[in-house]
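Suppose you are handed a protein chain with no further information: no name, no annotation, nothing but its sequence. What can you learn? This example shows the usual starting point.
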Amino acid sequence: MLDQIQLMSVFVAVAEEQGFAAASRRLNMSPPTVTRAIATLEERLSVKLFNRTTRYVRATEAGLRYL
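A reasonable first move is to predict its three-dimensional structure. Written in C-alpha cells, the prediction is:
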C-alpha cells in the first residue's frame, strides 16, 4: 500500500503526463498500480481528480486545485 506522499507523487505524475501509461513509465510502476493509486487518492479525498476518456486524461477543477 502506498502512503499519502507516494499517492500524491503518482497524482502529480499523472497530471503532468496527462496519462496513466506515461506516468507509470515515468515512475517505473505498473499501469494498474498507478490506476489503483489514483482511485485510492480520490476515495480518500472524496473527489474526482481526473476526467478520463479513451483519448485523454485531464485534471478536473478539483484536481487542478489539488495540484
